[in-house]
Each structure stands twice: as C-alpha cells, then as structure tokens.
C-alpha cells in the first residue's frame, strides 16, 4: 500500500484532509512537533522510515501582517522549507503537492487570474510563497503547486470563525468591501487533493483552486451572518479605512479552468460550501 505524508497535519487544511480521508490508511498526518519542515535531518529520517509515494505540504507561515516584520521566519517556512522538501522528494522519488496562495499576484488585474499570469507580490508573505513555488519548480519536476484563496473551515482559525465570534461580541461591525476574491472551503480543496493523487494522468505543474463565485470580504461576512442567522449591523468600508501592515490584493479571483478540465472536477459555489461548513460549527443566535 502506498504512503502519503501530510506535513502540517494539525492545521486547517491538514485537519480537513483527515476528515475527508476518513479510513484511508495511506495518509500519515504529521504535526510540526513530529515533522519540522525546516529540519532536514528530521525530514530525512521520516522519508527513510516511511518511504512515501506522495508528500503533501500544508505547513506554512500565514501571518500576513506579521510577516512584514518577521521576514526571516516567513522566508524560512515558506521558501527554504519547501526547497528542503523538494530535494528530499527528488532524492526519494516522491511526488510533492504544495499549497500556495493568491498573494503571489499584485491584485491589480481586472479579470480572472490564470496560472500563466505574471506574479508580482506586494508584501513579504506573498514573496515568500512565490519563492517557495520557484524553489520547488527549480528542484523537482514531479510537483503539483495549488494556489488557493480565502481559506476557511470548521478547523483552525479563519475569517468565518472570527466573524461568528465578533457577531456574538458586538452589535455593529465594519468590513472591507473593495477587496474581491473567492472564499475556499478547505474540505473542498482536500477532496480535490485526494482526487489529484488518485488521478491516472500525472499532469504536474501549477494549478488554481477556490470555490466558484466572486465576493468581497463584506459579501462574505454578510453571507456568514445571513446563513448563520446572526443579527449584527454590518457596514461596508473601503480598504483605506482599515489600514494593515501588509497590502492585500484588491482583486484576486482565480481562474480554475485548468484544474477543472485536467482532473474532471466540478467546483461548488462558495455560498453552498459555506452553508455546509456553518452546519458543522457552533453558532450562538441569541
């Protein structure tokens, strides 16, 4: 039986993979305490012991604003660590599935972003993720790099959980309305990852995945409260009224044509997936 190592197994996507995989004994979920992706010696021991066929890298530095001040840490986890994994995958002939982000783009294009569009990160986080992509592409051919956006699930910390908490704490909330993208339910992404692993055609390369549909953060928040039946006064505000250390892409709607056609998948609309997720989360409606 083949073996699949999941790095970052305790994170949002790692837990989503675990939920989707259920009794699939091929997947071995590794937390950062067991598998530090920056530790070459530790990773080598794991590859030697398990002799995996596939490695899935869900581990990353994702604190977008903190990255502006923690440049070395972001580079270590998002660029240097993927390079270490790629070298080991090449040494042991292991396929690598790596998760990247819409932040590799500047976010100033009007139109869906394809895998062929020019990358131009505007912050440390996006640059570190792009450096990780390039390292993998340079080192090992047998890779799938999946760029995604606005990831959330019933696991980990994310925008949906934050909105639910704030609705329970506040009577009024302002949310940015001029940043547009597509929310992604991590469980949907997990299903696609497993399909890629089992798909007969090994069409390596870069792919985009998010749920279908387009939303602003305000739209997303509005739907969370509407579908969760939470009462709160929600107001749209411009990005200028909510300054952050890192610049966010104003427009980052990913074109999913390539992944849909290559792997014969249908992608749910983001509101449909949000409904599914909210049913699995405790929501106070008082």
Structure notes:
With 286 residues, this protein is α/β, with parallel strands linked by helices. The protein is 39% helix and 16% strand. The protein is built from nine helices and twelve strands. The chain has helices spanning 12-21, 40-50, 71-92, 124-139, 159-169, 186-198, 217-227, 257-263, 270-279; strands spanning 4-7, 27-30, 54-57, 95-101, 143-148, 151-152, 172-176, 180-181, 184-185, 205-208, 215-216, 233-237. Strands 2-1-3-4-5-10 form a six-stranded parallel β-sheet, sandwiched between helices. The longest helix is centred in the N-terminal third of the chain and has 22 residues, at 71-92. The termini are far apart.
Task: Outline the secondary-structure elements.
Blueprint: E1 4-7, H1 12-21, E2 27-30, H2 40-50, E3 54-57, H3 71-92, E4 95-101, H4 124-139, E5 143-148, E6 151-152, H5 159-169, E7 172-176, E8 180-181, E9 184-185, H6 186-198, E10 205-208, E11 215-216, H7 217-227, E12 233-237, H8 257-263, H9 270-279
Question: Which tags fit this structure?
Answer:
286 residues, single chain, two-stranded parallel sheet, globular, 39% helix, Rossmann fold
How would you sum up this structure in a few lines?
By secondary structure, this protein is α/β, with parallel strands linked by helices. 39% of the residues lie in helices and 16% in strands. A 6-stranded parallel sheet has the order 2-1-3-4-5-10, sandwiched between helices.
């Amino acid at each position: 039986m083949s073996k699949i190592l999941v790095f970052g197994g305790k994170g949002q996507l790692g837990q989503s993979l675990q939920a989707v995989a259920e009794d699939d004994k091929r997947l071995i979920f590794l937390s950062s305490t067991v598998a530090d992706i920056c530790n070459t010696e530790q990773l080598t021991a794991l590859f030697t012991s398990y002799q995996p066929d596939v490695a899935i890298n869900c581990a990353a530095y994702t604190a977008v604003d903190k990255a502006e001040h923690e440049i070395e840490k972001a580079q270590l986890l998002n660029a240097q660590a993927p390079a270490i994994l790629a070298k080991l995958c090449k040494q042991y002939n292991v396929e690598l599935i790596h998760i990247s982000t819409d932040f590799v783009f500047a976010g100033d294009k009007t139109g869906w972003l394809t895998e062929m569009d020019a990358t131009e990160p505007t912050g440390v986080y996006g640059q570190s993720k792009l450096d990780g992509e390039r390292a993998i592409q340079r080192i090992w051919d047998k890779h799938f790099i999946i760029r995604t956006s606005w990831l959330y699930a019933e696991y980990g910390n994310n925008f949906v959980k934050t909105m639910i908490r704030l609705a329970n704490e506040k009577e009024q909330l302002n949310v940015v309305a001029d940043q547009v993208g597509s929310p992604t339910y991590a469980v949907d992404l997990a299903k696609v990852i497993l399909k890629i692993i089992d798909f007969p055609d090994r069409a390596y390369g870069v792919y985009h995945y998010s749920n279908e549909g387009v939303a602003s953060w305000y739209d997303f928040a509005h739907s969370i409260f509407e579908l969760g039946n939470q009462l709160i006064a929600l107001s749209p505000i411009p990005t200028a009224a909510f300054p952050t250390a890192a610049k966010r892409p104003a427009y980052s709607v990913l074109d999913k044509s390539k992944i849909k056609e290559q792997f014969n998948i249908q992608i749910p609309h983001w509101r449909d997936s949000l409904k599914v997720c909210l049913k699995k989360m405790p929501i106070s409606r008082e």
